[in-house]
Amino acid sequence: MELHMHTHHLESRAPDWMAAVVAGFVSGAVVMVLELLWSALIGRSSPWAISHMVSAIVMGPDVLQSSDFSVAVVATALVTHYVLGIVFGLVLCGIIAPFHFDSSRAMILATGAVFGLLLYAFNFYGMSRIFIWFTDMRGWPALITHVIFGMVSAGAYWTLERGNRRL
Fold first, then answer.
1. What angle do CA 42, 88, 98 make, to 5 degrees?
2. Which of 7, 30, 73, 118 is most exposed, with minimal Cβ within 10 Å?
3. How far apart are CA 67 and CA 48, in angstroms?
4. Helix, strand or coil for residue 6?
């Protein structure tokens, strides 16, 4: 009888890329809803302000002159948000599979939480040097939503990937 330890060493193991895409999309949607709810609950600014900030990545900083509802701004923000969610979901799952971080539910959620923390640092302390308008969003709400993003993305990937292994 062999004893198999769940060691997390690098191994040539490809992620389930389709599960990663869906996981990134789903977690992007969850974060978007949380951001809208947070904006509505604290009520300090327009619920569309975050949409303007996200769409400014593509449309340029002139979009930030207003925070009124605009179909073009919201559509651009949605596409940008989902594309970024999918890209970051792919990155996360590209880390999970070769290191076997999907060995248990606790491990996958912890991996997602750590990824969310690192993603927060990347977005709000790295990318904010280019997109300076995101520095105003630094704080607990953004940190928590990034941790939730990582955990939802990792959990969704774990669920979808395990389901695909049975097929």
1. 135
2. 7
3. 6
4. coil
What is the band of 3 on the pLDDT scale with cuts at 50, 70, 90? very low
One-letter-per-residue 3-state SS of 72-92: HHHHHHHHHHHHHHHHHHHHH
- Pairwise CA distance, residues 10 & 22, whole Å: 24
Tokens read off for 43 = 């009520």
Residues 6+ apart with CB under 8 A from 89: 20, 21, 23, 24, 25, 27, 28, 153, 157
Q: Is the dihedral of CA 134, 135, 136, 141 positive or negative?
A: positive
* pLDDT tens-digit map of 97-155: 999 898 899 999 999 999 999 999 999 999 999 999 999 889 998 999 999 999 999 99
* Tokens of residue 8, six digits: 């997390």
Handedness of CA 69, 75, 76, 79 (dihedral sign): positive
Around 68, how many Cα atoms within 13 Å sit in the side-chain half-sphere? 3
